[in-house]
Amino acid sequence: MSRRAVAWVALAAVVVVTLAIVAWPSGGKPSQAERVRSVSSELRCPDCESQSIAQSSTETARAARADIRTRVAAGQSDAEIRQAYIDKFGPSILLKPESGGLGILVWGLPAAALVLGAGGLVLALRRWRREPHLHPTDADRELVQRARPR
Amino acid sequence: MKHRARWIALAAGLVVTVFAVVLATQVGTDPRADANKSHLLGANAPSVDLPTLDGGRLRTSDLAGKVVIVNFWNSWCIPCQEEHQALADFYGRHAGDPGFAMVGIVRDDTDDAVRRYVASEGVPYPVALDPGARASLEYGTRGQPETYAISPDGVISGTRFGPSSVSNLEQLLAAAREQR
Amino acid sequence: MKATLGVLALALGASGALLGVGTLAVGLARHDDRLLRVGRRYVFVVLAAAVLAAGVMEWALITHDFSLQYVADNNALATPLLFTITGLWAALEGSILLWTLVLGGYLAFTAHKFRNRATDPLVAWALLVGLVVALFFFVLTLGPANPFKTLATAPADGRGPNPLLQNHPLMAFHPPMLYLGYVGFTVPFSFAIASLVTGRFGEGWLAETRRATLVAWGFLTIGIILGAWWSYEVLGWGGYWAWDPVENASLLPWLTATAFIHSVIVQERRGMLRVWNLSLVIATFCLTILGTFLTRSGILNSVHSFTQSAIGPTLLVFLGLVAATGIGLIAWRGDRLRTPGRIDSPMSRESAFLANNLLFAALAFVVLLGTVYPLIAEALQNKQLSVGEPYFNRMTTPLGIALLFLMAVAPALPWRQTSREVLRDRLLVSAWAGALAMVVAVALGARELAQVLAFGLGAFAVAGIARQYVIGVRGRRRATAEAWPVALVRMVRGNARLYGGLVVHVGVVIIAVAIASSSAYSTKREVRLASGQSATVRGYTLTYTGSHTQRSGQKNTVTADVRIRRGGDDLGTYAPAISTFPNASQGIGTPSVRTGLREDVYLTLISSPNEQGRVIIGVAINPMVLWLWVGGGVMAIGTAVALSPSLRRRARRVEEPAPVAPPTPVPEKVPV
């Protein structure tokens, strides 16, 4: 392998290892505090416009955080906690639309649009491709190198 | 494809038209309409145990069997001040009825401010404080003033968000009484 | 008297616009050059009328003339002068007035710039379209959004502006900047419609209006950054972007405009993507109107939202007309304007720009969909839903990462085509820079995938940009033997758009890294302190030293003094506050921020001293927020550089007449 190729392979290795370290699941389930934070960041603070319970500092938001803490400690699942709040405040308490039903629109459409767009682009590029381009590859260069008189 | 731009443009036009129709139907509606309905209608009223302004305690268990009107309010909200007189008049009409109870729960305010308000304006019915905002949360309140009517068997039979007039309150009372 | 004068000015503007439209239309129909020349002058009438109307309003505000309802609603005797002046854009009616003023300015500038081509039907059509838009906005001010409505009895004192709007001098800049951006897109839009109507293309309308588009884009960028700054420093909820419908409304045209300023380069170079660019320009303008509709109609919940007014349906109808006209014209003419261009290879800068457009279009789609989804749910299922930060972050982050990757790779891609080998050579060093940045980030404790990728790709991109600059300067010095700084300046001026654009990319990278850091690694705590007590948060010791109350005019402010220390160094005393106004219902918090190079200490006063004299103070440690503003500044500088007149245009002129030798030609841009 040429030196450059080695450099690229080494680069790929470094990147893969680093990403693996980052993506490695960090031991076990999330802690209770983390669960409280993640659930409360997906629920809207009832007397705010669009802030989450995690962000807001109104009295109700603080009461809600305490309430969620109690529920998490009591063993309720994220879905159960969310449902309890929906029962009290209606579905508008969720900041992240549910994926079922109408939610397909808001979660699926962008992905579909992106895939369609990318697909269209690929098709267009293929159509535009003319005759194959000729570029010297490393193998070609080596060939020339060997053929040259020393 | 022949006339490709035309087809794409027409497709886009269709999407935009649908979108415009959706927008048009929503013009004139109030996005806060949801905040005017309580999702606890028909559910059992959450039980509360709160300190009152005069040092006692307010427990829902003490009010069992009565029709209860609960009003969430505080001293700084302007619509609350607007409905203050109506609430007082309404209470005056029914205070003598042993099957009737009315309580005001303070939401998102300091004790001092409430005391000062009550001292200067006067509130004839019991006022309960809500430290930690537990009751406000349990009742699914999103602001104030919010008024809930609870039937004698503990079911939330009517709610009203925003300032109420005496006739609004009478309607709530009547609905609660009918609920069996 | 002022009201009559103001209404007269508005009527003058409306009639000027109407007459201008009529004259130009007749002139175009009859191919009458004289009429076209006359019709053009009405643009200046419109500008004069807008200036007069705005001037009258400012006069009324400054003299506290409460017989005007707008002044009574948005001004009070105690309002400081700065906020009296900014009262012009404090509410709906005044904002529309500002819109007409800025529009008049842009139209006048366009008319002046194309004065030598006044009889060209393309220019005439563009002015006509611009005047139609101006007409619409003047009709708005004469009808549903009349700023000069009078009250039967003038109150002794006005209500004063919304307290949130008189908290900070930034109020003077954020809305005008946004409007300079929004309204500026009317110019390319007018030319796009003109081009479609006349069926003419090329002839440089694109290059001429490219500058106007870039100016508008630059102002919109600054306006959005200022809005984020205001949100952070003034509103006090602790963040800089809430995915609020009004914020999204300003972001949408920015996204399509950014796509346009990239794809227009492909059009200039290869003559392709004409219809797509026309669509982008029309879409950008439609999105500015849509944004105004969403914010002003009261149709969506927002911190910016105002009471509903009749302006909603009017704006919607106008938006429908504009969209229908644009789509109709493209359906009619679009196929005729298409060129049989082709892109030679997926590994070329053209392809990178296409990918860029795809990603920006996807971003715009996501933001639009998320913003209007509550309306769709309400219309279809009568359910009230909210779409907030979790959705937007989840959907936009991957697209943002992909764009960072493109930014890193694209500058190294040659035009037309390249081979893998060439690309590998060019990108190797920059890619290693990115990899090392990732390693360092992970070594310092970063564990969120999106953030680590942002750091790595950001470093990759900046290294690539540095490489472009170094190679360019080196190449130039080989040819001219100039000194480094001279070579740098001349090189940049030789291709201002490229090098200015690269500076803008550096700004974007800085912002991306700042966003990645502050969103993942912020700490938030609430501490309850009595006077003299301290709390420690992430190495900072905060001591509450006492509070004081201050009454000034309308405002009653309670301030808590907090001294911040870190590792023995005293970092100063900061004072978060809560202000109450007699006319407003709730206290308005003012945060106090200690801005640091690495992180901010963000203090808010959550509750004023209670009976025991204890306060609750909100403490947030936000990393890298300063760099958001720095990045914005870099973007602004890059835009200015990109706008500076390119030396290449003046290459024909001999700057220093050499007596013997022929003039030294300006070296061509070194092929990269």
Written description of the protein model:
The complex is a heterotrimer of chains A (150), B (180) and C (672). Helices cover 63% and strands 0% of the residues of chain A. Chain A is an all-alpha fold and 150 residues long. Chain A folds into two domains: 3-93, Helicase, Ruva Protein, domain 3; 98-131. In chain A, 28% of the residues are buried. Chain B is built from five helices and seven strands, in the order αβββαβαβαββα. Chain B has helices spanning 4-26, 78-94, 111-121, 134-138, 166-178; strands at residues 49-51, 57-59, 67-73, 100-106, 127-128, 146-150, 156-161. In chain B, the strands form two sheets. Chain B has a five-stranded mixed sheet, with helices on one face. The model of chain B has no long low-confidence stretch (mean pLDDT 86). Chain C has three domains: 2-398, no CATH class; 410-520 and 628-649; 523-626, Tick-borne Encephalitis virus Glycoprotein, domain 1, CATH 2.60.98. Chain C has helices at 2-30, 33-62, 69-74, 81-85, 92-113, 121-142, 174-184, 186-198, 205-235, 245-270, 274-296, 311-337, 349-381, 389-409, 420-443, 449-480, 484-494, 496-520, 625-643; strands spanning 523-529, 534-537, 540-552, 555-566, 569-574, 577-580, 588-590, 592-594, 599-607, 615-623. In chain C, the strands form two sheets. In chain C, strands 2, 3, 4, 5, 6 and 7 form a six-stranded antiparallel sheet that branches. The N and C termini of chain C lie far apart (65 Å). The interface between A and B is medium-sized, with 16 and 18 residues.
